[in-house]
Automatic annotation (TrEMBL):
It comes from Lanius ludovicianus (Loggerhead shrike). Residues 98-125 form a coiled coil. Residues 45-64 are annotated as: Disordered. Residues 48-61 have a biased composition (Pro residues). Transmembrane segments: none annotated. This is CCD17 protein. The keyword Nucleotide-binding does not apply. The gene is Ccdc17. It comes from the Eukaryota. The keyword Coiled coil applies. InterPro entries: CCDC17. Keywords: Coiled coil.
Amino acid sequence: LRLSYLRSGGHDPAVLDQLLHLQLEATVLENGTAGLGRGRRLGTVAPQPAPEAPPAVPAEPPGTGTNALDVALLAVEMENWRLEDELLALKVRRERRADAGSRAAQRHTEELAQLQAEVGMLRWQAEQSRPWLHPPVLPPSVAPPLLP
């Protein structure tokens, strides 16, 4: 959703933040790890209580801070996603500016061609409306004709 929003021209930080928040919630649900608090801004990730049933073989002894590490990892992931979104938004804006510049250049070229065609038409009309002048008549020659 986030990429589609950015590619279609969206750049509202509030919407991007909400999409990032939803993506983080989905990641948390998929992984079954610590959940999110109900905050709307980045950095509001709050640890949730662990599930009631402990895993069959704990990865680390209790009290070593794995929950805090999961939250920190999710916070880093969120920041990474936010930065990726920002980069993509910048690329989209740059492409739009380049497209706008090329469209302006194309429009300028078309206008120039149209003006040149109009100038050609006006020249042709001017030549057609010019009165026909007869070739200049020279006075009779006073010198005798040259022999071959």
